[in-house]
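Render this sequence as a predicted structure.
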Amino acid sequence: MNEFELINGAEKFPLIEARDLKQYFNINMGLFKTKPLKAVDGVSFYINEGETLGLVGESGCGKTTVGRTLMNLYKPTAGEILYRGRPILTKHDINEFRKKAAMVFQDPYSSLNPRMTVADIIAEPLDVHRMYKSAEERREKVLELMSHVGLNSEHASRYAHEFSGGQRQRIGIARALAISPDFIVCDEPVSALDVSIQAQVINMFAELQEKMGLSYLFIAHDLLVVRHISHRIAVMYLGKIVEMADAREIYDRPLHPYSKALISAVPIPDPKIARANERIPLGGDIPSPLNAPSGCPFRTRCPYATAACAEAMPEFKEVSSGHFVACHNMDKVN
């Protein structure tokens, strides 16, 4: 799935693109037998410059694995990852890509080295890629990055355990910004924070995007957070993307039964509207990725499932401008 523009007769590619991305993990089943756990199973999407793609879904659906595979922390089982239209294949490609891409992790407690000062944590990417000429230049870059994320210069010599959760996440964000990236994978960056701190960090992400032209893959399970920051949203279920559209479109007009159920569960602050809003309960348990259902992965919990749903995975197709859905029975659902 591509979106190209012609500028002065030349193709302009998306910043990041995943084509039929798969990530399988071999699980030991005993007696020398293994079975593939299909954490990500044929995912395709693109992210343009200056854009945020929100990736949502229940825990265990493969969201984090998508982000880590994009960063080549896991080697993809199959499929392609492209940066500005060029495939990332060799070690050299990966090293060059990592000079322009970074990741903010979910847990600000475990993602920072407790033995390193804040200055050394933030400067670690600079050290790895040798992006300074002197100790003074290194120090100036660290202080500049700290000011970008709202940390004081006197914090530089302190250690991570001396900070609150929100401040630790700011340190992680400053570290991600150290290489002046084009693209950042945000892996549930606010889920471990208090609600009041979440708002501050989300607003900071938006300000940094506007100031630096950053692109984000924003992974979360909180739909309100994703709606606030994302331009487009992809809904993931059991290793597959089942719907993708503009953020407002997917909230106002969800077409996949799973998307409808997720959005019906979002709290509404207006009591009158909340009472009128019909909650869509989902029966059954989420199947294991080790024993995923045949055909559509959602069919075991879908009230509209038919025999066709068990036979083949529905095509992920564009049903209106920029709105993609994978469902055999979309006419019944809507």
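Summary. Confidence is low (pLDDT under 50) at residues 1-10. DSSP finds twelve helices and 14 strands in the chain.
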